[in-house]
Amino acid sequence: MANQVTLNKQTESEKLQEFLDRIDRGDKIEADDWMPDDYRQQLIKLIAMHGMSEIMGALPEKEWVPKAPTLRRKLAIMAKVQDEMGHGQLLLRVAEDLLAPLGKTREDLIDDLFTGKLKFHNVFHMAAPTWADAGVIGWLVDGAAIITQTMSLDTSYAPYSRALHRICAEEKFHAQHGESIVLTLAEGTAMQRQMLQEAVNRWWPALLMFFGPPENGQISSNQELNIRYKIRSQTNEELRQEFFNKYVPRIFHLGLTLPDETIHYNKEEGQWYYQQPDWNEFKQIVQGNGPRSAQRLQLRKISYEEAQWVRDALLANQRNAV
């Protein structure tokens, strides 16, 4: 019996090494390939959170569909909301394949969202009280998302990579949509510029938190594992620095300011220095205690319950077809 246990351990160890060798060669892992349990769990956590964040992220902008200032803007933001919902459904489908061997389904993910086990991104717990917020979400929040998602385009998990290629292509249009709103307001009246500045001030702490806490010289075990498995290729702080490189000069070019007098770029070090946000507040937000957490979850729950008849009808059609 002892020899059999040793053989099984060796076999698992050999499988893991073969798996790591595949990843190091640049091979892609498909849903039906063997994978380590922690690889599967890391993917489920990442992709489920990403998918739910796409769905929850449509809600702040959904509020502005009936209030958009022109018909063209209304059609544009309506299309953006539709795209975000589609991204969420696409990603949950990817997550479903990973959940199936564990005996779990998409319904379990929905339940986890409603019970607080599954988190969604900190930025989508925030309020969007003005039209300028819709612009900042499209320009800066989606811009931050593109940076994160672009990092994972070459992820080792093939289904996620394929989904991201489609999502990133559409997110670029979303960022252009947001930039168009921002530029119009920046070139508008004094009141419009003030509204835009207030929106930037309001969103800046959430944008700093977007990529997660800095490593302070030591990356977390989750980041380290994801980098080893080539699920991701950059740390939180590397992503944040990339965001600063791209967007801080553009914000200043528009004559806008940031609510941080300390922010500056050190050319010799190639590093941005900035005032850290309140990371305790970040923890509270992602745990469901943000400014709009309860309202957004309740809206999603109502929408889910009201659409139950659609899911029932589809399942009935599937059973009849069989």
Describe this protein with a few key phrases.
single chain, 322 residues, mainly alpha, Ferritin, two-stranded antiparallel sheet, 12 helices, 2 strands, 70% helix
Walk me through this protein's architecture.
The chain has 322 residues and is mostly helical. Among the domains are: 40-96 and 104-110 and 121-204, Ferritin (Up-down Bundle); 234-248 and 261-282, no CATH class. It is 70% helix and 2% strand. It contains 12 helices and 2 strands. It has helices at 2-25, 37-62, 71-99, 106-115, 131-151, 158-186, 190-209, 221-228, 236-253, 279-289, 293-306, 308-321; strands at residues 264-266, 271-273. The protein has a two-stranded antiparallel ribbon with strand order 1-2. Helix 3 (71-99) packs antiparallel against helix 6 and helix 5 crosses helix 9 (236-253). The longest helix has 29 residues, at 71-99.
What is this structure's SSE topology?
Blueprint: H1 2-25, H2 37-62, H3 71-99, H4 106-115, H5 131-151, H6 158-186, H7 190-209, H8 221-228, H9 236-253, E1 264-266, E2 271-273, H10 279-289, H11 293-306, H12 308-321
Antiparallel strand pairs: 1-2
Protein name: 1,2-phenylacetyl-CoA epoxidase subunit PaaA
